[in-house]
Structure prediction request, 331 residues.
Amino acid sequence: MFPSSDSLSSFKVPKGTGFVAHAPIEINSAQYFATCTIGGALACGITHWFVTPLDLVKTRLQINKSLYTGIFNGWSTIGKASGIKGLYTGGIPTFIGYSMQGAAKYGFYDYFKYKYAQIAGEEFTNRNRTSLYLASSASAEFIADVFLCPLEALKVKAQTSATPFAPSFLAGVNKVVANEGVGGFYKGLTPLWMRQIPYTMVKFATFETTVNLIYKHIMSKPKNEYNKIEQLGVTFSAGYIAGIFCAIISHPADVLVSKLNNIAKAEGESTGALAMKIIRSLGFSGLWTGLTARIYMVGTLTALQWFIYDTYKVQAGLPSSGSVEPVKKTA
Prediction:
C-alpha cells in the first residue's frame, strides 16, 4: 500500500555518516506515527522560535506598516530599545504553540495519508497522489490549529502591544482570561484555519511533488540508492521551494489573524463582522503588507522544518520524507 517506495527494506544505512542504525520501525505502525509526531514537535517548535525576531517585525508591520522601514530597521530599532530579549518577544508562546501544532500536523498527516489510502485503494491512490496529499494535510491542520490558536493569540498580543503585554507567560494567560474569557484565545480560530490549512496543503503537496520531480529529473539514481545525507539535501531544497509557495498563498489570512488579535471587538460584534471591517479598512494591497519578510521567514522556516523532521526520522531508522513514484521498467 502507498507509499511503497518508502519501504525500509530498500533503505540503506551508509557507513561513516554519523547516523545510528536502529531496529527497523514498521511503516504505518503506532511507533511510526509516534516518531512522526515527535519529529513534528521538534521541527515546528524549534524553527518558529528561531525566527521569532523576523516574525516580530512582520507582525508589527502588519499592524502598522509605517512603524519600520524594513526588516533590518525593525531589528535595529527593537534591539536598541530592548536588547536581544526584546527581539524574542512572544518567543515562549511561539515555542509551546508550534510544538503542539507540529506534533499534530506531522503525526496526523502521515496517519491520514495511510488511512485515506486504505479507503481509496491502491490503484486510485497511485493515480491521485496529489489529492491524497491535499486531503491528508488539510485534515491534519484542522486538528493542529485547535492546539495552536490559544498560543498564537497570546503571541500576537505580546508582539503588538505598545507596552509589555504581561510580565510573564502565565501572567499573559491570566490577563486574557480576565479580560476576554477563554473565548479570547479562540476568536482567531477561523482566520487561523484560513491561513494554516491552505498553507499546510501547499506545504505538503508541493514538498512531495518537488521531491518526486528532483529524483525523477535531476538526480541520476532512484531515491533508495542515495544515502541519508544526500536524501536530507533533497529534503532541504524541496522544503524551501514549498515554503515560498506557502508564504504567498497564506499571507492575506496571516495579516487578518494579526489584526484580529490586536483589535478589541465592540460589544455584541461577531468575529466575522470584525474581520470584514478589517478587510474593508486594509483594502487589497493592505492584505499583502509584510509579504517580503514573510517569504524569507516561511521559506527558511519550511526548509528547516523538513530538515529537522527528516533528520529525526532517519536517526530513528526511517527513510526521509517524500513519496517517489517507482521507476517504470522497460521491457
